[in-house]
Protein: Contactin-associated protein-like 2
Organism: Struthio camelus australis
Amino acid sequence: SNQLGSIYGHTSVMTGSLLDDHHWHSIIIERHGRNINLTLDRHMQHFRTNGEFDYLDLDYEITFGGMPFSGKPSSNSRKNFKGCMESINYNGNNITDLAKRKKLEPSNLGNLSFSCVEPHTVPVFFNATSYLEVPGRPSQDLFSVSFLFRTWNPNGLLVFSNFADGLGNVEIDITEGKVGVHINVTQVKKNRIDISS
């Protein structure tokens, strides 16, 4: 979300989705008079600011990643950013490099660390034709699987596996926005178990 413009006009533009995926994302904001280019991961949005002025008065400070606790009332009590930023450039100055070399006032830094711990999870994106197949573990009497998922699709197959010796299969899916577990067993009378949330 970006708010740019004079005191007599308010311009707010939002772009992007699913940005909390543990991947790096690139943001570039360029202003030329009232013309703004907002680029997120190489997807550019062009817009014009509301208001009457071609210049942008940034007061005496610009903050990255949030506001100090004594922030101005205009901060709308927004939560500060949790995560990593790298290669912060402002008007040609590499802010992260200057901060690391202590070329900025220490009072302006807050509680920063100059290392980013890699996330323990690695997300994977599936399109309509992709799947991930891994080796099973035969001769095991325990079946345990856990995962996080995010989707806009109301229907889709999440997990599927055949039982050994043609004894049936297990299937976890989303049907009309609900998660279902289906266990099909071929050797018994009541041969299908369905669990739905």
